[in-house]
Design goal:
By secondary structure, the protein is mainly α. The protein contains five helices and two strands, in the order αααββαα. Helix 1 runs parallel beside helix 5 (90-108).
Length: 111
């Protein structure tokens, strides 16, 4: 899940012009008519759809600071669980936090 997440976050990272890396690569594909390997990444891990959707939902409400996005906190997760009525096991919460640490690393550094 972490390698899939890392690849997706790298593609989603905005460049200096505000467009994502994915948008730039897709434009190159369109102009050249050739598929780019950089767009292909690890396959989505089976059985992880609900956790990935949970991460995306929680991440949508994240705050940002001077250095970019803030990490998702345990209180953020708890509030999301209470608001949505969803449940996560302790292992899923830890996996979500690991995914988030990859997100923060990619979005606040050069990858």
């Amino acid at each position: 899940m972490l390698s899939y997440s890392e690849h997706q976050f790298k593609l989603a990272k905005p460049s200096e012009d505000g467009k994502s890396v994915r948008e730039h690569l897709e434009q190159v594909e369109k102009q050249t008519g050739k598929s780019l390997e950089d767009l292909d990444g690890p396959p989505f891990p089976s059985g992880m759809v609900e956790l990935w959707l949970s991460f995306l939902s929680i991440s949508f409400g994240r705050t940002s600071g001077f250095n970019g996005p803030n990490p998702i906190s345990y209180p953020d997760i708890l509030a999301w669980l209470e608001l949505t009525g969803n449940t996560l096991s302790p292992r899923e919460v830890e996996t979500l936090k690991m995914i988030d640490s990859v997100y923060i690393r990619i979005m606040t550094n050069d990858g």
